[in-house]
Amino acid sequence: IPYVGIGGDIVSYQENSDFHSTSGSTWGYHLEGGVFIKVPRLKFLMLNLYLKITKAIAQEETIEVDLGGLEFGLGLTFGFDLWKSWTL
Question: DSSP strand E in the chain: where?
Fold first, then answer.
């Protein structure tokens, strides 16, 4: 089952060093696409393969830092069909 989605993010950051310490948060967004793969004989279990691109820029004084990036992953998803559960 292929899917694509877009969403908003709040990204928190903190860095400590001998020269300077900083922390804060910024807004960002992401675009994600992937596929759910049904596991045979287990109707409630699916594998999730995805790729996500995030963009979030933090500004500290005169420096801009891109906190976003590329993420890919594999996950397990447990689910059920709520509408089938409620029908008689």
Answer: 2-15, 22-38, 45-60, 63-66, 69-78
Residues 38-88 have pLDDT tens digits of: 988 888 899 999 999 999 999 888 889 899 999 999 999 987 777 776 665
State how far the Cα of 71 lies from the Cα of 25, in Å rounded to an integer: 20
Number of residues written out for the chain = 88
**pTM for the full predicted model:** 0.73
Judge residue 34's burial from the number of C-beta atoms within 10 Å of its C-beta, 0-12 exposed, 13-18 middle, 19 or more buried.
buried
C-alpha–C-alpha distance, residues 15 and 58, integer Å: 13
Tell me the C-alpha distance between 46 and 38, whole Å.
5
